[in-house]
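Researcher: I'd like a candidate sequence for this fold, 609 residues long. If you have to choose between options at a position, lean toward the conservative one.
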C-alpha cells in the first residue's frame, strides 16, 4: 500500500497541475491567442438569462464561467502572480475564450465521431504512456523512464489508474483531431526544389534608384481644379473605416512614501534578525524577491569583475569575507549583499556572494488609493466632461489619441475589448470606467466619432493635395530613370548614365532569393527582377518597389544552386516546411470553425464594463 500511495501521490500531484489545461491543450497549440483584455466588475445576475455564451446550439452557463474564473484566479495565486486589475482582465478574457473554443472543439468531436474506447485507452497507456507518467520517480531508473517498472505497476491491482485514464479521455481525442488535420498537409518535390533554389542561388547586380522624395523641391501643379480632378478619379483610395478619437487621463501606479517607509522598515527588520544571529540564507529564502537565488539561500555563486551590474559589483568586491553590506540600489531593486568567499583563479580575482533582493513596489493600499482617485475623476468626467474634470481636479496631461478603428490597439492601455466595444456603441462624450494598464490606470472619454465611407473633398483636401503632389513627383522620378534607361540601351555605361543624370547608383553584394540586401533591405520586387535577368538580357526595365522606389537593375553575376547538396539539405527543408504547414493548417482550420460559428456573448448582461 505504501508503494501505491507513493505512485498515486506523485501522479495526483502532477494531475493537479495538468488537469486544468487538458481541455484546452490542443486549442492552445492550434490557435493564435485571441488577445482580448476584457475588464469588468461583477454584478448581480439577470434572472432572465443564465448563459454567459452560446456557441451554435451549445450553451455555456454563467456558473461554469464563474467556476472557471475562480480556478484560473487560484492558479495565478498558486503560481505567485501579483494579482492586479490587468491580470484579472486577462484571466476573464482568456477564460471566456477557452470555454468558447472548447465548445467549438467538442462539436467537432461529435461531428467527426472522435471517441476513445476502453480497449484503445488501455493500449495507449500500455504502449505509449503520457509524459506525466514517465516523469513519476517510481517508474524511473537513474532518472530515465523504466518501461519494465511501469509494466509491473500496470499489472498491480492495488494501483488506481483513474486519474491517468481521465487524462487520456480528455487528451487523446484532441490528438486524434490533430492527426486528422495533419493528414491534410503534404509537400511536393517541386516545392522543395524551389525552396532549395531560393536559399542557394546567388545574384549580384548594379542598380540605380529614385523616388518621389528625390523631387521634393520640384514645382508641381496642385491647383484647386487639379485637386478636384484627382479626388474624383481616386475616390476609392479615400474610403475609411469607422473610427473614434478618445481623450484620456493617466494615473501612474507608483510606490508611495508609505511604501518606501515600509521597505526601510523591512530592511531594518532583516538587519536586526541578522544581528540576532539568524542565518543569512534562511532570511534570503523567506524574504528575497529574486526567485532564481532565493531558493538557494540567496547564493549567486562565483563571478569576476565585469559580470555583474556596476553598483552590485562595486559593493560586493568591497566586502570582506562574511561581511554584509548596507542596502545597495540597482535597476533590479535594493540588495543586501553578503560576501561568502574570495579566490584567485588563473590570476583573476573571483568572489562568491549571496544577496537578499527587495523591490520598492506599490502596495495594495497604494494601488487602491490611486484607483480611488481615478474613480473620482471618472464620476466627475461623467457629469462635466473630462476637460472640466481635469481642471477641477487640477490635473495635467490630458492626452488625445489618434483615430482608432474597431479592434485596434488604443493608446495607453493597448487592445481592450470592453473599451473598444463601449466606444463604438455609445454616444460621443461617454466616459469609460478606469482601466488598468501595465503600470497605470486610465480614464477614457469618447471625444469624436467618424462614420465609415468616403469623406467629402473639403474634409480631406490637404491629404488629396499631398497625394497629387506625390504622384507628380513619382512621375518625374520615372521619367528621369526612363532617360537613363534609353542611354544605357544606346550603349552608354550603366554608372556613366547614372552619373550624368545625377541618379544614385550602387552595386550589391551577392544575395539569395530569400535574403536581405544591404542598402535595399528585403524588397521582393527587386529580388524577383534580379533573378529573372540572365546574361542574354541583363538589363531590366524600370520597376517599382513596394516602398515607392523605382529601380533599374543590371545583372553582374548569377550563381545557380548547387544541386549536389540537394539530398543532404532536403530533409531539413521538408521538416521546416512541414512544421510551418501544420501551424498554418491548424490556424486556418480553427479560424474557419470560429468564423462560421454563431457565438453569442452575454457577458455584458452580467458584468459592468
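Model: Candidate sequence:
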Amino acid at each position: 500500500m505504501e508503494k501505491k500511495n507513493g505512485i498515486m501521490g506523485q501522479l495526483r500531484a502532477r494531475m493537479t497541475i495538468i488537469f486544468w489545461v487538458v481541455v484546452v491543450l490542443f486549442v492552445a497549440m492550434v490557435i493564435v491567442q485571441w488577445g482580448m483584455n476584457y475588464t469588468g466588475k461583477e454584478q448581480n445576475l439577470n434572472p432572465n438569462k443564465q448563459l454567459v455564451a452560446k456557441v451554435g446550439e451549445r450553451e455555456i452557463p454563467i456558473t461554469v464561467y464563474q467556476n472557471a474564473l475562480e480556478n484560473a484566479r487560484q492558479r495565478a495565486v498558486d503560481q505567485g502572480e501579483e494579482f492586479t486589475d490587468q491580470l484579472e482582465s486577462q484571466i476573464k478574457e482568456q477564460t471566456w475564450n477557452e470555454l468558447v473554443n472548447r465548445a467549438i472543439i467538442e462539436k467537432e468531436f461529435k461531428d467527426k465521431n472522435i471517441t476513445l474506447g476502453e480497449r484503445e485507452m488501455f493500449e495507449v497507456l500500455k504502449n505509449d504512456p503520457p509524459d506525466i507518467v514517465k516523469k513519476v520517480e517510481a517508474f524511473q531508473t537513474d532518472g530515465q523512464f523504466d518501461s519494465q517498472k511501469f509494466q509491473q505497476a500496470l499489472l498491480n491491482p492495488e494501483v488506481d489508474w483513474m486519474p491517468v485514464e481521465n487524462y487520456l479521455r480528455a487528451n487523446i481525442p484532441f490528438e486524434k483531431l490533430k492527426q486528422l488535420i495533419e493528414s491534410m498537409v503534404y509537400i511536393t518535390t517541386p516545392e522543395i526544389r524551389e525552396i532549395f533554389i531560393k536559399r542557394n542561388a546567388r545574384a549580384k547586380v548594379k542598380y540605380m534608384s529614385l523616388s518621389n522624395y528625390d523631387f521634393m523641391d520640384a514645382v508641381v501643379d496642385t491647383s484647386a481644379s487639379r485637386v478636384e480632378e484627382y479626388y474624383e478619379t481616386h475616390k476609392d483610395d479615400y474610403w475609411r473605416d469607422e473610427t473614434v478619437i478618445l481623450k484620456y487621463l493617466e494615473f501612474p501606479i507608483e510606490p508611495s512614501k508609505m511604501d518606501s517607509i515600509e521597505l526601510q522598515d523591512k530592511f531594518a527588520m532583516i538587519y536586526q534578525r541578522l544581528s540576532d544571529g539568524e542565518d543569512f540564507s534562511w532570511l534570503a529564502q523567506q524574504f528575497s524577491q529574486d526567485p532564481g537565488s532565493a531558493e538557494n539561500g540567496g547564493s549567486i555563486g562565483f563571478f569576476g569583475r565585469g559580470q555583474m551590474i556596476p553598483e552590485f559589483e562595486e559593493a560586493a568586491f568591497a566586502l570582506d569575507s562574511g561581511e554584509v553590506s548596507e542596502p545597495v540600489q540597482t535597476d533590479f531593486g535594493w540588495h543586501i549583499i553578503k560576501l561568502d568567499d574570495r579566490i584567485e583563479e588563473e590570476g583573476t580575482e573571483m568572489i562568491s556572494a549571496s544577496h537578499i533582493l527587495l523591490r520598492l513596489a506599490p502596495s495594495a493600499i497604494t494601488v487602491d488609493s490611486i484607483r480611488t482617485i481615478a474613480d473620482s475623476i471618472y464620476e466627475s468626467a461623467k457629469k462635466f466632461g473630462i476637460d472640466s474634470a481635469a481642471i477641477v481636479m487640477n490635473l495635467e496631461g490630458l492626452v488625445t489619441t489618434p483615430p482608432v478603428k474597431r479592434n485596434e490597439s488604443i493608446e495607453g492601455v493597448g487592445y481592450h475589448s470592453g473599451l473598444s466595444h463601449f466606444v463604438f456603441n455609445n454616444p460621443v462624450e461617454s466616459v469609460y470606467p478606469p482601466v488598468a494598464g501595465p503600470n497605470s490606470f486610465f480614464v477614457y472619454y469618447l471625444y469624436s466619432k467618424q462614420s465609415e465611407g468616403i469623406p467629402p473633398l473639403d474634409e480631406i483636401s490637404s491629404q488629396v493635395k499631398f497625394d497629387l503632389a506625390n504622384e507628380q513627383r513619382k512621375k518625374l522620378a520615372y521619367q528621369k530613370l526612363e532617360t537613363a534607361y534609353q542611354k544605357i540601351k544606346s550603349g552608354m555605361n550603366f554608372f556613366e548614365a547614372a552619373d550624368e543624370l545625377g541618379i544614385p547608383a550602387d552595386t550589391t553584394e551577392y544575395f539569395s532569393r530569400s535574403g536581405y540586401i544591404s542598402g535595399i533591405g528585403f524588397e521582393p520586387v527587386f529580388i524577383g527582377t534580379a533573378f529573372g535577368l540572365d546574361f542574354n538580357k541583363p538589363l531590366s526595365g524600370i520597376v517599382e518597389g513596394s516602398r515607392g522606389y523605382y529601380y533599374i537593375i543590371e545583372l553582374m553575376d548569377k550563381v545557380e544552386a548547387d544541386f549536389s547538396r540537394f539530398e543532404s539539405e532536403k530533409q531539413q527543408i521538408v521538416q521546416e516546411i512541414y512544421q510551418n504547414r501544420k501551424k498554418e493548417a491548424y490556424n486556418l482550420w480553427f479560424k474557419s470553425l470560429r468564423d462560421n460559428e454563431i457565438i453569442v456573448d452575454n457577458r455584458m448582461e452580467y458584468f459592468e464594463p
